Amino acid sequence: MDIKKSAKATRDSMQQGIYVVINPVVKGMIKIGMTPNMVTTIGMLGQIAAAVLLIIAGYRAGHGQPYYPLMIWAGGVMIGFSVFDMLDGQVARIGNMASRFGAMYDSVLDRYCELFNLGGIIYFFLQAGNLGAGLVTFLALVGSLMVSYIRARAEGVGIECKMGFMQRPERVVVTVLGVLAAGILGVCGVSWAEAVLYGAMLLIAVFANLTAVARLMWSKKQLNK
Prior knowledge:
Blueprint: H1 2-31, H2 36-62, H3 68-82, H4 84-94, H5 100-127, H6 131-156, H7 168-187, H8 193-224
Helix pairs in contact: 1-4, 2-3, 2-4, 2-5, 3-7, 5-6, 6-8, 7-8
């Protein structure tokens, strides 16, 4: 329990530090009339752009053309537009524009972002001729969606269900690092560059599905009470 409290305190401290940096940007967005839903939408469009870059990289991989620089760009775009996932919440809070629909809209677009990103990686692996990595990434996608779905269903019956290691922030970090590392190592001529992204997807596939199962079992225990 102490470890969990310590981890939560560390995460909260880091989050507050990030807010200190982004709050001036948030106030500027509010001043020019941006709403939380607009910020959320921009973030999703950026993630779609990253997925398109991965798809192009996959197409080029399948045709024997250079593609690692595109993976670096895709990872960079993912990082840049992931910031909007924090900005929308702050715009809602500081601008006093929080709404129940806004929270729902944010959650729905988060799922779309994961579908686009992991879908792009699946296409990349399949075009590169790595069926095994494509299947593992598909399992990562299934686990990612089920983690969120089980939480939503649990909350629908009055249970708070936020437990588990591989939640969305962790999945985003692992995905971005996997894409970036594969691209950078590939540009440097490392032969096993794609294996790094494969490993990242395997990590998500295992721990996201374990998190989903743990949430389901915990919810059953709470309902049985």
